[in-house]
């Protein structure tokens, strides 16, 4: 993969809801080739931003059993973001290929510069260890083991900062879980990976990536690897080789040797495996890792700018040798779809493949952040709003309720007494009770006088002098009268 855009870029034109596809990009040139795919520089048509687009043949992946690795890589990259990772921006697919659009890093990969005999100073190696150490520390917090840290998977941007790429065999471990498969590139694999393959240990975890980083750091400085391990070396021989002492040139400083020695510790427990442990080494003790992460430390080695730092033969191969060149994809797919008019292109897609748009994710996270801020402001406003006076609402005393009931009964009796003389017998009974009603009214008057404290402006004074308001829940006399008359 190639080259130089920061993951902090903004592209407001992509804040829409439309998914990105192959037609949104203009193909510029090929810059890389891997086991299952190729990489080219593309330009997004609406924003003119340059990206690196990795594409893998779906049929080739399925025939070689590598489709699961590609799906897992997209799933991992969609959940990761760090200044020293090659971050994913878009993913999509068509009937032929699966696409991943990532940061473009024009400085080329570290293998390219090693093959061109670039001499990296101790300062250059130390800064690269800090940058990639920061990325590995981040991955460890995300419980991700890369398992293939090597010069081929370390890309430099235009200024010379290092970025880790290719998560094809990376895995996310369960809490307190172990990885147990023999995955990686043999010359850069840690001893415990080989021991796991020999059934000498149950598994391995995050320190394997720090061992690989130590091998890379040694190779950068010496231009050879510390151990003579190759792809065809037997496992038993590898175990013996990795336990042999490492040769350090005399002109290397003692602090630099100390750093490499702690990265190449055979025992995982004694190996540097975090940014904090990295900071405690004599060589990096005074390094400001905040400046490192913010890319304020200027790399001593800056890749050449007068040419693209990759093999120029890759572009010729894409133009001449490739049977299905990318720049002819649109016409090719149009012919295929025209010949198969009755078939639906959607049925030919991989259902498990994640269609991703980082700008949509950024927009969603920005909205969630604003909502949290609004909720916090509302809670603070409610907390600062203090009610100074609050009059409690109490029920009226039971004696007042009795008076109200008596009033209602008396009103009903009085109503009955006003009926005509020729009323029915029940009405005559009501007349006879009118005298009793007048007596009741006299009694009620005295009761009302006894309850005058409750009648005074409808309130009563409490012990502490506050005004207590009562709610009269007794039925209205008129209402009772209406129902009984």
Key descriptive features of the protein:
485 residues; Phosphorylase Kinase, domain 1; 13 strands; 41% helix; disordered C terminus; nucleotide-binding
Show the helix and strand layout.
Layout: E1 25-33, E2 37-44, E3 50-57, H1 58-63, H2 67-77, E4 88-93, E5 97-102, H3 110-115, H4 122-141, E6 144-145, E7 154-156, E8 162-164, E9 171-172, H5 191-197, H6 207-222, H7 235-242, H8 254-263, H9 275-279, H10 289-293, H11 313-321, H12 329-339, E10 356-357, H13 358-384, E11 393-395, H14 398-417, H15 425-432, H16 434-450, H17 452-455, E12 459-461, E13 467-471, H18 477-484
Parallel strand pairs: 11-13
Antiparallel strand pairs: 1-2, 2-3, 3-5, 4-5, 4-10, 6-9, 7-8, 12-13
Helix pairs in contact: 4-6, 5-7, 6-8, 14-15, 14-16, 14-18
For the record, the CATH class of the domain at 108-294 is: Mainly Alpha
In round numbers, the mean pLDDT is 82
- The secondary-structure class comes to alpha+beta
Strand content: 5-15%
Rough outline: globular
Helical amount: 40-55%
Low-confidence stretches: 12-16, 418-423, 454-468, 479-485
The CATH superfamily name of the domain at 108-294 is Transferase(Phosphotransferase) domain 1
Count of helices? 18
CATH-scheme architecture of the domain at 108-294: Orthogonal Bundle
Radius of gyration: 41 Å
Strand order in the largest sheet = 1-2-3-5-4-10
What name is given to the CATH topology of the domain at 108-294? Transferase(Phosphotransferase), domain 1
The biggest sheet amounts to:
6 strands, antiparallel
Give the total of beta strands.
13
Distance between the termini: 96 Å
Binding site for ATP: 54
Family: Belongs to the protein kinase superfamily.
Protein name: Protein kinase domain-containing protein
Region (Disordered): 414-485
């Amino acid at each position: 993969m190639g080259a130089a855009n920061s993951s902090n870029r903004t592209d407001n034109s992509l804040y829409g809801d439309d998914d990105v596809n192959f037609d949104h990009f203009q193909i510029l040139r090929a810059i890389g080739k891997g086991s299952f795919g190729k990489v080219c520089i593309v330009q997004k048509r609406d924003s003119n931003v340059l990206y690196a687009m990795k594409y893998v043949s779906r049929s080739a992946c399925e025939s070689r059993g590598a489709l699961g690795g590609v799906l897992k890589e997209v799933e991992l990259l969609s959940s990761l973001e760090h200044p020293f990772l090659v971050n994913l921006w878009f993913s999509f697919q068509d009937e032929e290929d699966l696409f991943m659009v990532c940061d473009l890093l024009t400085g080329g990969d570290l293998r390219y510069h090693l093959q061109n005999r670039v001499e990296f100073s101790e300062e250059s190696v130390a800064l690269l260890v800090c940058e990639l150490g920061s990325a590995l520390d981040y991955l460890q917090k995300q419980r991700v083991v890369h398992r293939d840290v090597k010069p081929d998977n370390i890309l430099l941007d235009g200024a010379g900062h290092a970025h880790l790429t290719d998560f094809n065999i990376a895995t996310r471990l369960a809490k307190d879980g172990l990885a147990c498969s023999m995955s990686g590139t043999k010359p850069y694999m840690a001893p415990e990976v080989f021991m796991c393959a020999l059934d000498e240990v149950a598994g391995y975890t995050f320190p394997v990536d720090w061992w690989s980083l130590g091998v890379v750091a040694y190779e950068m400085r010496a231009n050879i690897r510390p151990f003579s391990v190759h792809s065809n070396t037997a496992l038993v021989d590898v175990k013996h080789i990795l336990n042999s002492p490492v040769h350090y040139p005399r002109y290397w400083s003692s602090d630099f040797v100390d750093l490499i020695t702690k990265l190449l510790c055979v025992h995982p427990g004694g190996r540097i495996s975090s940014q904090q442990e990295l900071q405690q080494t004599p060589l990096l003790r005074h390094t400001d890792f905040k400046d490192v992460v913010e890319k304020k430390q200027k790399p001593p080695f800056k890749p050449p700018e007068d040419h693209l730092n990759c093999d120029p033969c890759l572009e010729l191969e894409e133009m001449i040798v490739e049977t299905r060149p990318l720049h002819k994809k649109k016409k090719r797919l149009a012919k295929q779809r025209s010949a198969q008019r009755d078939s639906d292109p959607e049925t030919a897609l991989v259902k498990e493949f994640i269609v991703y748009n980082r700008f949509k994710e950024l927009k969603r996270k920005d909205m969630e952040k604003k909502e949290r801020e609004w909720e916090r402001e509302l809670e603070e406003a409610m907390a600062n709003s203090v009610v100074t006076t609050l009059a409690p609402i109490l029920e009226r005393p039971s004696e007042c309720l009795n008076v109200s009931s008596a009033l209602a009964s008396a009103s009903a009796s009085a109503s009955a007494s006003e009926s005509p003389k020729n009323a029915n017998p029940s009405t005559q009974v009501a007349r006879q009770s009118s005298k009793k009603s007048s007596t009741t009214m006299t009694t009620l008057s005295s009761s009302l006088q006894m309850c005058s404290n409750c009648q005074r402006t409808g309130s009563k004074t409490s012990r502490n002098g506050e005004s207590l308001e009562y709610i009269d829940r007794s039925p209205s006399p008129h209402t009772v009268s209406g129902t009984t008359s």
